[in-house]
Design goal:
Number of strands: 10
Number of domains: 1
Shape: globular
Structural class: alpha/beta
Order of helices and strands: EEEHEHEHEHHEEHHEHEHH
Distance between the termini: 30 Å
CATH topology: Rossmann fold
Number of helices: 10
Strand content: 15-25%
Largest sheet: 8 strands, mixed
CATH architecture: 3-Layer(aba) Sandwich
Helix content: 25-40%
């Protein structure tokens, strides 16, 4: 079922957000990864009957406006502002990659609104890394060289379906990524999140010390990690997890779930499994 699309202006940016299900049912809020968009969750949501689900397009992604700044602290602030404006409560927060980072910021900033978190391979590194001087070389990141002109979403699907990491994705998720991640520009289509912007976002991940927020999160947190092959492998092709293996232990009530059969894009590879893990977290931490 297609979601209901709505828009909200936050700090000069027009933020698109999507809603499935019925208000009053258990609430799940989804936060996507860098370079993806809210509709990449469609496959997961299709397995979440009986839930009220909200997902946002971060600024510079999907149908949201390309309005700077694009720092990870701004993505988190946008998510927090949307949650407050909609007056959401009893939130089961779910984040993938950069989206997990944002969801931690939100749960730390608005603790009374959250019930629990499920973080799929969040880009949260070991604490010592956040004391280093951030390395900015967005234009040198491999993602910056991605193709950004397509005849159609179908052409993009055909190009990506046999290429890592997309070859591991569920076909329906790849379709959603391409169909909703392109913007019509005259006779061509361009990525809603331009390659240089995506690369710049990757290289700004250390601008905010997320451990200042982690210490404030008291709700249960499940960290679902992909195969751990080290940061070099993770940065190269996203085949491995960038998540610090000890992350779950840093939360007051953290739980680690290691799934080495999957890559960093596990929700895209197995939407049914991702939905099952989300639903399990909701049920396990249901308040009587």
């Amino acid at each position: 079922m297609d979601p209901r699309q709505q828009r909200m202006v936050i700090d000069d940016a027009e933020i698109a957000w999507y809603e499935w299900g019925v208000p009053g049912d258990p609430l799940i809020v989804l936060s996507h990864a860098t370079g993806l968009h809210a509709r990449c969750w469609d496959g997961v949501v299709s397995h979440l009957d009986g839930f009220h689900v909200i997902a946002t397009d971060h600024r510079g992604h999907g149908q949201s406006s390309n309005t700077p700044p694009f720092g990870w602290d701004q993505f988190g602030a946008d998510l927090i502002a949307l949650i407050v404006e909609l007056d959401l409560s009893d939130i089961n927060g779910v984040g993938h990659s950069m989206g997990g980072h944002c969801m931690v910021q939100a749960a730390a900033s608005e603790p009374e609104r959250f019930r629990q978190l499920t973080l799929f391979d969040p880009v949260i590194l070991e604490p010592s890394v956040y004391t280093m001087t951030p390395h900015r070389a967005g234009k040198q990141h491999p993602v910056a060289k991605r193709r950004n002109a397509w005849d159609s979403p179908r052409q993009m699907i055909d190009k990506f379906k046999d290429r890592t990491p997309f070859s591991r994705w569920h076909p329906d998720v790849l379709r959603d990524y391409c169909q909703h991640g392109l913007i019509r520009d005259g006779d061509t289509y361009k990525l809603a999140c331009p390659p240089e912007l995506e690369a710049g976002i990757y290289t700004s991940s250390l601008d905010i010390n997320i451990f200042d927020y982690i210490r404030l999160v008291e709700v249960p947190v499940t960290v679902v990690r992909a195969e751990a092959l080290g940061l070099e492998a993770a940065a190269k092709d996203f085949s491995a997890s960038p998540t610090w293996p000890e992350l779950a232990s840093q939360f007051a009530n953290g739980h680690d779930r290691y799934l080495p059969a999957y890559s960093h894009f596990m929700p895209m590879e197995n939407p049914a499994l991702a939905a099952s893990l989300i639903a399990s977290g909701v049920t396990h931490h249901q308040v009587a």
